[in-house]
Specification:
CATH architecture of the largest domain: 3-Layer(aba) Sandwich
Helix content: 25-40%
CATH topology of the largest domain: Rossmann fold
Shape: globular
Order of helices and strands: EEEHEEHEHHHEHEHEEHEHEEEH
CATH class of the largest domain: Alpha Beta
Bound molecules: adenosine-5'-triphosphate
Number of strands: 14
Number of domains: 2
Number of helices: 10
Largest sheet: 6 strands, mixed
CATH superfamily of the largest domain: P-loop containing nucleotide triphosphate hydrolases
Radius of gyration: 22 Å
Strand order of the largest sheet: 6-7-8-3-9-10
Distance between the termini: 40 Å
């Protein structure tokens, strides 16, 4: 089954065009959607989840028309929003059971089995009697996945799931997601490049509502091979360098600044070539976009 997004555009009431003719076909596995703040990622996720209507375009999940068959979509969609906002003062078992009923499961013993299975899968079984409102950030995220998995979804959308998680929780969350990605379409929307590098078999970069990069992490890194350069400069030289070169990142190193630059050819004799990584690719593509917008 594939998710097919065709010519999706969205302009908000204030005139802001958040999505500009987005086209994507997404198959089983982990799909990484990267983009800076305000790129349109959440707008796209909400549109796919049926929470807001686009101005134009079509979205199909297999044969199902996601924009018109909303009830049917809800049954096969798992959605973990950026922020749940409110957690009721009930324990995890009660809340999952309640959500399972809302998703249409009317068989009590089957529900019990499914809920317990999900609590085990998300490592929350020990904490199942605690109120979800008292969970830590990582536990909430795992609870979010548990609720998203109710009803055996065919499509799972997770919007910036690891922001604020400590490395161990993040790792746990990654393992859980990649397990799920083995037989489901999982869309991971984030601005954390490492999450995509570690997990996804496809990466798409969105800026200002446009797709500016699409490929496998390996493939897009390969495309940038030989085009990323670095040089150590003084702090006082950074501003000039930014005017002169397409600087994609700066790091303080032993009191000086290491700049990484995108360039088809060696920018000057003091630059040395470096192995490109996904972060270079991401920052090059978004800075290039910004540069051409000016
Ligand atoms: N309801 C709304 N009304 C008006 N403008 C909106 C609305 N929702 C989002 N926007 C604007 O649309 C653009 C895209 O926002 P969106 O939340 O989709 O981006 P994002 O890529 O998810 O960003 P972030 O990483 O910060 O969550 C932003 O400029 C945002 O301010």
């Amino acid at each position: 089954m594939e998710l097919s997004i065709k010519n999706i555009s969205k302009t908000y009431a204030n005139g802001l065009k958040a999505l500009d003719n987005v086209n994507l076909t997404i198959g089983k596995g982990m799909f990484g959607l990267l983009g800076p703040n305000g790129a349109g990622k959440s707008s796209l996720m909400r549109t796919i989840a049926g929470l807001q209507a686009p101005d134009s375009g079509e979205i199909f999940l297999g044969d199902l028309n996601a924009l018109t068959q909303k009830e049917e979509l809800r049954k096969v969609l798992g959605y973990l929003p950026q922020d749940f906002g409110f957690y009721p003062k009930v324990n995890a078992v009660e809340l999952l059971n309640h959500i399972a009923i809302l998703k249409g499961n009317s068989n009590k013993s089957e529900r019990k089995e499914i809920v317990e299975g999900l609590l085990h899968q998300t490592n929350l079984f020990e904490a199942r009697k605690r109120n979800v409102s008292e969970y830590s950030g990582g536990m909430r995220q795992r609870f979010g996945i548990a609720q998203a998995l109710l009803g055996n979804p065919k499509l799972i959308i997770v919007d910036e799931p690891t922001a604020g998680l400590d490395p161990m929780e993040r790792n746990r969350f990654h393992n859980l997601l990649s397990e799920i990605g083995e037989n489901t379409i999982v869309i991971l929307s984030t601005h954390i490049v490492d999450d995509v590098k570690n997990l996804c078999n496809r990466v798409v970069v969105l800026t200002s509502g446009h797709i500016i990069l699409d490929g496998t992490p390996k493939g897009v890194i390969e495309d940038f091979r030989g085009k990323i350069w670095k040089k150590l400069i003084e702090k006082s030289e950074v501003e000039v360098a930014k005017e002169q070169f397409q600087v994609i990142s700066t790091h303080i190193s032993e009191g000086k600044v290491e700049i990484r630059v995108f360039s088809e050819t060696q920018p000057d004799a003091n630059f040395i070539p470096v192995e490109s990584n996904l972060e270079d690719v991401y920052f090059s593509s978004i800075t290039k976009k910004i540069a051409t917008n000016v």
